[in-house]
Amino acid sequence: MEEVCPLPALESIKNSGPEWVLQALDQVPETTRMMMLMTWWHAWHVRNEVVHHKPAPPIEASRRFLRSYVDSLLVIKQNPLADPAKGKSIICYDARTNHGRQTDLASSSKAASEPLG
Length: 117
What we know:
The chain is mostly helical. It has a domain at 47-117. The protein is 50% helix and 7% strand. Strands 1-2 form a two-stranded antiparallel sheet. α3 packs antiparallel against α4.
């Protein structure tokens, strides 16, 4: 996910007590915070799959799922009047700049649902 939004180095995240997660999230920009939360949420989902004797999804499938999900959330947030059914919108991963990337949500969603292999 670092090619989309840089995540903090693991060495910079310290377990400094019961609120270490809040402290780690407080030190990063909003988009990075969302990526961290989504990554942790998906890691917990994968853990639950394994605990319930289901195979863990491949890493590439998880990466595509998270990227597609985050793209969809950013489009909704940044372009609330855009029609997601039309499939193309500009999204910006860095709120401090006007640089974005054009995404085709229809193909992004399709790629996320395609099986690997």
